[in-house]
Design brief:
Order of helices and strands: EHEEEHEHEH
Strand content: 15-25%
Largest sheet: 6 strands, mixed
Distance between the termini: 10 Å
Number of helices: 4
Radius of gyration: 15 Å
Mean pLDDT: 76
Low-confidence stretches: 1-16
Strand order of the largest sheet: 2-3-1-4-5-6
Number of strands: 6
Structural class: alpha/beta
Length: 171
Amino acid sequence: MNKGLVAGAGCRQLTPAMASQKFSVDLCGPACCGKSSFILRHKTGQYYTNPIVPVRTTLTFETNKGTCELCVHEGVSSGADARAVLFDTCRRLPMHQLESMLASSPKIPMVLCGTKSDRRDSIAEPGVYELIKTYNVMYYPISAKSLYNFEKPFLVLLRQLTGNKDLEFVA
């Protein structure tokens, strides 16, 4: 299981430095890009190649500022506090799909993630870098299988949501 994650734990009272907070995060991307594997790896600590995951799940993270809880929705929902947009770096993807996911909620924190980055046939298309500049989002190549940059998307989103740049996951 990844550092900082408490699988199945409920949200408890946080330290006085940080009020008890829960956040809603959209996890969106095209079919078969690794969204479910990514969530289940966070939730259970195991890697699944063909997972079936609920549309909504809660992830609880232990941080140096207390416990943070994210309600993760697969897909785009109204009222989300943040969004992680995932795409498969091993497949060609029409850039307009990614752009529409980024453009639909410009006022919330977002992160762009290229999944399956540990594979040999993994490449990020040039259009991705234009989206990063246009929408001013952080980009991370990630892998649920090898745990490469595995915690970065949620760490970056939690830092933005809490306004605490010093937030870190702890064991």
